[in-house]
Amino acid sequence: MNTAQDLSIYLVDDDAAFRRSVAFLLDSVGWTVVQYDSAQAFLDAHAQPPADLGCLLLDIRMPIMSGLVLQQHLRSRGWHAAIVFMTGHGDVELAVQAMKAGACDFLEKPFKDQALLDAVDQAVQRTRELQQHNQRQAGARARLQRLSPREHEVARLVAQGHPNKTVARLLDISEKTVHVHRQHVLEKTEVANAAELTRLMLAADAQALD
Q: Where is the Response regulatory domain positioned along the sequence (predicted)?
């Protein structure tokens, strides 16, 4: 049962009776469900990702705009929504296409209640993991922004494993100056040593030390 109410399930399907059935099931285990009868209605309502978006349940075939096209629109906007597609018989090839484009899962109608609940739980877990990653990244970037341009140069070289002597040669400054900058870097970023600095820089940007 879902006990955390911070995230909601967004359901997009043109079949009103089906939407009611799915919403009733999800509501019975504690999820808040927001319903839309078309992909366009969802897009019109959300210029930005909803703050409480736990996952999207999308019908793969809908009039005017399909679930696949909606997925493409969201990707073009830079959204990283966790999507579970619901497909009819014979739509497996489309579902595979959706999975290749980043969907979490697909369910072939009619599906068992537990299959839907499991798929939603897994999709929401992906959302939570992404949120945690984004929070760690934002925190790491904020700490590194405290550095001056020169301190950032020193930090990058130290995080790459270079000793002070090498850093001094590469930056054409004295080893004593490197030592001073290095101490300032550790103090400003609130890390104890070069290993922690390396982890911090990689948390801010996975390619930071390339």
A: 8-124
